[in-house]
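Extended Data, panel c. Modelled sequence:
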Amino acid sequence: MALKQVKNKIIATKKTGQVTKAMEAVSAVKMRKSQERAFVGRPYVRSALNILSRLSASQDGLSHPFAEVRPEGKHLLVMVTSDKGLAGSVNSAVQKRVDEIIAAGDSVEILAIGRKAVEYAVRENVTLVGDYINVADGVSLVEVTSMADKVLSLYESPKYQKVSIIYQNFLSTFEQVPTLRTVLPLNPDEIKLMMDGIKPKSGKWSEIENSVGTPTDYLVEPSSEEVLNTLIPQLVAIIIYHALLESKASEHSARMVAMKNATDKSKELIKSLTIKYNKARQAAITAEVSEITAGVEAMGS
């Protein structure tokens, strides 16, 4: 490789490193904000799931249409991904889990949240029943309510056997786990698993108590059915809201780590190219000196 080519490559690599360094800084800021939103929302989601667990296990809850187990039908999958790439394995890990579900023989239809989920459904020829892209990091409750209404309206059809949501659950800056949870029909055991997944391994939020309330039959007015018809959609919206917050925190954490790794690699490559450039330059200088010396000797003789 010529000296000019090596020098141009060093310049290009430096510029790439500057871009990845800036992206790392931006992702770090977004990561802290997203982590805080996810952690602050966890106690609220835990309380909501506790209510849902008690209701779904009560007599009225078990007889509700949203709690009835259906023997057959399609699997409606709410797939949560990011809109952008350069985030490590955040999206590919979710996509692999969906591949496993399809390979297991489930007839899947996807409600996509995030551009990467839409692209996956189109690429794999999976039926797309709806899509939501460019969801803000703050996660608007209006958007979440729209998503929950869409899920509930689709599930009212006997076409679907169950509704699940798959997303990246945030454990730490360096660890995110693709998580699959059943949303409908309501299942106390599945709700307990959701609650267990909310508690982080360490930090101030690790002290959350994940106790599940005892199933209780309540005397309600005007009727249990009316109360459940109002409450269950709100609780489903909370589950989706929680999944979006966890996914956003995972996305920015993974992107920050990926950009840091890219920045470090660019520094290593610059160092390697600089050594190569200096060796080539020294070799060229040595050759020129040798030619001059040989010429002087020839002229002297």
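The mean pLDDT is 79. This feature is highlighted in the accompanying rendering.
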